Amino acid sequence: MALETWLAFFVACWLISLSPGAGAIASMSAGLQYGFWRGYWNALGLQLGLALQIAIVAAGVGAILAASELAFSLIKWFGVVYLVYLGYRQWQALPSAMTAQTERPLGRPLTLVLRGFLVNFSNPKAIVFMLAVLPQFLNPQAPLLAQYLLMGVTMICVDLIVMAGYTGLAVRVLRALSSPRQQRIMNRSFGVLFVGAAALLATVRRATA
Asked: Can you give the pLDDT at residue 102?
């Protein structure tokens, strides 16, 4: 891959990652609930889902999923239900007054990784999107595997930085929450955002020729 092509792809990765979506909502929610270092496990799960999506596209399976109405619908509606579930859990999250002595709840790293993985992987729109975008940066005369690996590493590194920003932003907001009432409002706001993301995903239709 030529340097100028990679630079264009690098810029595109930032634009894609910075666009608010379910991953950003999940990162901020994790930071709000668990703090930065514990909540950042969610971002690692997001990258596992992203890596699997890239691998699916690189293997050519993504084209099959994009063409199959049943496969597309199954993945989409699983994602919708899961986002609604996350919204319900966030809405029901118990507030606690934050003081210097208060400890945040400890989320299990594996649970947070799985949560992030499912948020990213259960979005079939992302697979279709990558099917349309990634080939634009490929040189068909050069080895494709090496190019997909380079693009995958680039996307994941950029997304890790962006999700760290979203997680850290939520932690800064958390420091300003001094009462259970404020935390309850914030938790319910994120619950509504999760459901809103689910509603948007539900409107996604498989692209047809």
From this structure: 46
Query: From its phi and psi, is residue 134 left (phi > 0), alpha (psi between -120 and 50) or beta?
Result: alpha
Which pLDDT value is given to residue 163? 92
Name residues whose C-beta falls within 8 Å of residue 81's C-beta, 6 or more positions apart in sequence: 198
- Domain span holding position 173: 22-95+104-202
3-class DSSP state of 209: coil
Q: What is the CA radius of gyration of the chain?
A: 18
Residue 2 lies in a domain: no
Please give the pLDDT value at position 105. 55
Greatest Cα-to-Cα distance within the chain, rounded to the nearest angstrom: 60
Span 145-198, pLDDT tens digits: 888 899 899 999 999 999 999 898 888 876 666 567 777 777 777 778 778 777
Structural domain includes residue 35: yes
Region 132-144: what's the mean pLDDT?
78
d(CA 175, CA 194): 22
Q: What's the number of domains the chain is made of?
A: 1
Please check whether residue 6 lies inside any domain of the structure. no
Tell me the three state secondary structure of residue 7.
helix
How many Å apart are CA 16 and CA 155, to the nearest integer? 9
pLDDT at 98 over 50: no
Residue 11 within a domain: no
Would you say the C-alpha torsion 102, 34, 77, 200 has a positive or negative sign? positive
